[in-house]
Amino acid sequence: MSLNSESILKAYHNLNGFLVKTPLQLNENLSEFYGCSIFLKREDLQPVRSYKIRGAYNFLSQLSDEERKKGIVCSSAGNHAQGVAYVCNKLKIRGTIFMPLTTPNQKIYKTKKFGNSWIEIVRVGDSFDEACLASKEFAEKTEAIYVHPFDDEKVITGQGTIAVEILNELKKVDYIIIPVGGGGLISGIGIYIKSLSPETKIIAVESEDAPSMARAFENNSPVELKTISTFIEGTAVKKTGDITYEIARKVVDKIILVPEGKVCSKMMQLYKEDGIVVEPAGALSITALDFLKDEIKNKNVVCILSGGNNDWARLNEIEEKSLIYEGLKYYFLIEFAQRAGSLKDFVNKILNENTDIVRFEYIKKSNKEFGPALVGIQLNKKENYAELIERMNSCGIKYFDLKKESLLFNYLV
Q1: CATH code of domain 5-51+154-319
Q2: What CATH number labels 327-412?
Q3: Is the sign of the CA dihedral 285, 287, 291, 296 positive or negative?
Q4: What's the mean pLDDT when you consider all of the chain?
């Protein structure tokens, strides 16, 4: 098949009646703050709470009877798995789904629930790429039909149906901001948008710690990253697709890399201000707005909220990363004299109404005058950090800021 606006429009009609047409909502809070019209494409409101159901259905619904009898296999960090599981259940197709061991339990649970008795889950590897390799080996041995999460034409055209819905509602779109992992979503949307609205800017957003598409652009071909962070698991891919890379080169106007902590802050902001729950990958698009604030004034901007499968067991981690990014939380190793009243002196001399101890770990050492303690301190505002350091220096406190030592710091956070 060919990848073009016609094939995407055909996929759109193929999907009609199977899944909901998600809302394109004007967000008043974001629009007022950035001085433009910001619309949120709410793919987090799909039955499986992500856009992945589109590509999964477009692929599986076109299998022949013979292919269906062989069953299907796929690999996923969560959302693709849920989309495939849901469609397998609806179309009565047997499926085996390989998921990384790092996949949040909430996504494992939902995948099982959506697939019911029609799917089997195999957990293997610490990343999507390891699970992907295992799933392909399984497909070769069993002759099951492999459903790639992004680097497949039918999957790409299915994801591109989002763009049809957007242009059906909003005639003038200046910017579309899209989260990127393997590139299936931005490829499908980009093909359709650039065909019908070539002046629209397509903005790709990745985590600084998993920049597979950005590195592919720099190297003029997909390149496998040695290490990535899996915190934003929905886009944690070491190597972008071959098909998706070639399309992205033609349709993407800019790639923006964002810090994980900033993504966490935007997740919390979106929940507090609008009651919208998104997963980290789902918040990538609105996180990029700060990097575009000067050029999007008075423009029509669409942000794709790609998914809402957030595991609430991760809430403390999300809040922690947000506070650290915002400069409101710090960890220190502080040397205390091993005598009665040492902690009281520290509290009286160093802390004030703008600072608070949120973590304290100390074990008394015998036959030693001094002992280290792990102290977590939270500030009312980031400007208070300089004052805190000045007070510790003036009092002769011996300390080590763990934020400057990545190995120790990552052990804590």
Answers
A1: 3.40.50.1100
A2: 3.30.70.260
A3: positive
A4: 93
